[in-house]
Fold this sequence. Notes:
Structural class: alpha+beta
Number of domains: 1
Strand content: 25-35%
Radius of gyration: 13 Å
Order of helices and strands: HEEHEEE
Strand order of the largest sheet: 1-2-5-4-3
Helix content: 25-40%
Largest sheet: 5 strands, mixed
CATH topology: Beta Polymerase, domain 2
Amino acid sequence: xxxxxxxxxxxxxxxxxxxxxxxxxxxxxxxxxxxxxxxxxxxxxxxxxxxxxxxxxxxxxxxxxxxxxxxxxxxxxxxxxxxxxxxxxxxxxxxxxxx
Length: 99
């Protein structure tokens, strides 16, 4: 039986994203290891915001921090227009920020 371990790149992205969210006063910031149950990604970062404006601010801070610290840009983003729930996809890490 093999033991699953998220890749170090995924862990770094998740840590940077979680820290950026926390710095923008996101609540309930959590990193979830979903690699053994989902084939599409290794980690989820989940955070909550108090309002739509804060959702956008948190997501902007996350993408800026991840780009600065790792050189990675998102593969895609969803929900940016509505700003109630924004998903940022880095492949091995998927970030969810909820209003």
